[in-house]
Amino acid sequence: MIIDIHGHYTTAPAPLGQWRDAQVAALTDPVQAPDPAGPVISDDQIRESIETNQLRLMDERGIDVTVFSPRASFMAHHIGDFATSSAWARICNDLCHRVSELYPDRFVPGAMLPQSPGADPATVVPEIERAVRDLGAVTVNLNPDPSGGHWTAPPLTDRSWYPVWEKLVELDVPAMVHVSTSCNPVFHTTGAHYLNADTTAFMQLLAGDLFADFPGLRLVIPHGGGAVPYHWGRFRGLAQALGRPEPEESLLRNVYFDTCVYHQPGIDLLLDVIPVGNVLFASEMVGAVRGVDPRTGHHFDDTRRYVEAAGLSAEHLAAVQEGNARRVYPRLDARLTAQGR
Length: 341
What we know:
6-stranded parallel beta sheet, 15 helices
C-alpha cells in the first residue's frame, strides 16, 4: 500500500474556524468566549469536507492511508497562553480522531500539542498521553518555535524538552518537527518559516547529543528536510568542525525526512543524498502548494509521480511508500495489522 505520513485537516468545516475566531476575540473581550465544549460539527459536515477534498485526491492518486493531523498553520501557538492552546489542541485533535473513526481504513490520527511561548515543554505531556491512548494518535506535531517566527524557545536538545522526549519514547511514538504560522513579517509562513524550521531543527540536533540520552526517539523532519539534503556537505563539514560524528552516524538512526518536495529534481536529490531507509512518502495535500504545475500539467503536490519516477528499485520504492512508515510509526503498523493489512 501507499502511506502518506503528512496530511493536515486544512479543509475542516467552517464552525471550527469560527470557534477559533471567537476564542481569539475573547482574549480581549471575554463576552465573546465560545462554548468550551467546542464547535458543533456534524458527521455529514466532516464527510463533505473530506470526500470532496483529501479523500477524492487520495483515490485519484492511489494513496491508501494518510496520517491526518490538525492544520499546522492553525496551531498558532503564539496566540494567547497555555490555556488557550490547550483548549484549541483538544478540539482539533478530537476532530481528527472523528475523521479516523468515520474512515478507519483511510485516515489515521496525528495530534497537535498545546504549546505556548515561555511555557514549560512538560505541560504538553498530558495531551500527548490523551491523544495517543484515548484518540489513537500515531504521532504528534511538535513545534520547535511556539513564538511564531521569533525563536524564543530553547533548542530541541535543551533539557527542558526531556519530559516530552521521555513520554514519546515511553509510548513509542515519533514526533514530526513542524512549526506553525509565522507572525514575524520577515518570514513567510510556508515559503520561509517552515523550511527555515526544518533546517534549524536538523542543525540543533547535529550540534547536540540528544540521541545519546534517547536512543529510541524518532523525529521526522518534513518538507524534505528543508535545506538539509541540498547542503549535506555543509552539515558534514560543520559536524567535523564541531568535533561531532558524521551525520549518518549521529543522526540517521533517529531522524527521518518526508517527500513533501514539489518537483522531480528535488525528489531525485533527496533520494540520492539521504539513505532510502530514512525517507518516508508524504504529500501534505491539501496544503501550502495546491496549484497545477504548467510545465507538467499535474499538481505540484502529487508527489507519488516524482517518487515513482526517481529510479528506485522495487524494494526501495516499497520501503519509501510503505515499509519505512510502518517501521517508524509502530502504532500505525499495529493499526494496519489489526485491519489485516
